[in-house]
User: What shape does this take?
Amino acid sequence: MQQQKNLQIGVSDFRHLIDEGGYFVDKTLLIKELVDSGFHVSLIPRPRRFGKSLNLSMLKYYFDYRKKDTQPLFEPFQIWQAGERYRQEQGSRPVIHFSLKSGKTPDFEQSKRSIHLTITNVYHSFRWLLEEGTLTETEKSKFNSILSDKADDSSYYGSIKELSKYLYRHSGKKVLILLDEYDAAIHAGFYYDYYDEIITLMKSILGNTFKDNEYLYKGVITGILRVAKESIFSDMNNLGVFTVLSSFFSDKFGFTSEEVRELLSHFGYGEEYAEVKAWYDGYRFGKTEDIYNPWAIVNYIARHTDGFQSYWGNTSSDDIIKSSISDKNNTALRNSVEQLIQGGTITRRLNENITFPDFYSDPTIFWSLLTFSGYLTPAEQLTRTEYILRIPNYEIQILFQEIILTWLRIDLKIRETTMRKMTKGLTENRFAEFEEAFRSIMNDTFSYFDIHTEPERVYQAYVLGLLGMLSDHYVIKSNREAGKGRYDIMLLPKDKSQYGVLMELKQLEKEATEAKIQAALTDALSQIERNQYYQALQAQDISERLDVAIVFVGKEVYLSHQFS
Assistant: This one.
């Protein structure tokens, strides 16, 4: 019987995870894929919290010749059965491992200073070289200038390459260099307006480290994007770039369906797989489908009593994306978001080479950012650069709904009390209060939306946005199959003692008569019953429900309801 493991949330040190009995989703075949790769340097961008840092730590402990006692850490995992060639690589060579996350600051000088301190800390971890008789007196002087943080800027540019030379001389083996979050400072540089300076700095550091480094065995660089403008990688003819569109390493970051099933089963939640899939599955990396968000999965298990939540979305720090998506003046973008929220797709060209200075003039960059950052995922590739995109799962759908809430509540100054009155009226069987608040919000804000194109879609996205604040207590679904058709909106209570809500929305022309409006309301309620949409609630052991009909006539709204 497998020994019960525990969850180590946020731990990115592989040895600590294993030594503390933490559950490790076996990604050790990344080692095999790296050894087999013909590229000396691999750039592997992935969304945040998809396991990049833990994977690099795993590589460090596997290869590092100063950590030969780590063999028992790997014996239970797949790499140890992959063949003698790969076992021989264990503890075989020097490893330099560092992250540039600290360079993400609002100011260039502060960013540069943080990056210098990171390199100083790397040198501190190898200060034993000073006592090994490996370095000349001149080299010791250079080494100490980095250790004491007194080196000039140019010394830092080539410092990692110099360190790899010292390690090669000491071990006789070429060095594995692992760089995490290489683009953190670049994101900040664009957002805080020091992009040109940080690009120059990063090009110097990465170019000196990875280009024409005769002491390099392999390099692995992780981040979120491939940054291309004035490219910091332009001179590297030994670089392989493997984004979420590539099939290389496609199942090594994020969890597969099989891995999630095993993880849920280990902790006794195997019967919840279907709901977990709806909430956190849906990513496609290369040709690998059904990739799950690992941060969301482990947090759901660890906080199981809290139920399904938006765990990954709440960690977001993507300032560029948030500021662009919240721009109330961007009508075309807003319409696309509304279409996606309803479960629809959009077709866009993606560019793997992100050019930040062209962000506001080239629309492909925005959709590429959304995709590579994990907010959207490719459903299908149409041409070499054109893809059908969709929201991957319910967690991300909630995030987009909350963006609409931001438009409504902040940009449009909707009072919080009115929003809460509306939602409480709906969920506490005070329909008159719901109707009054809903009408008030509609009258104050609906002109904000462009309803000249596909009005039904706009109406539904609007209502979904309004209901988004209920997501802590209800699963909000739209356009799903149930009974004999597709309901418009369903509120599934997480507390099964509460009633569910089914909504049917209809739209009529501005000139519609009172009789036609009443007929539409009656038909909407009948449609819920006739098509047996309530079966979706019954399947979740929800016996009581509120049926709501909403008819939009231009910018006027009419409501009716029945309780069953």
Notes: Confidence is low (pLDDT under 50) at residues 448-453.
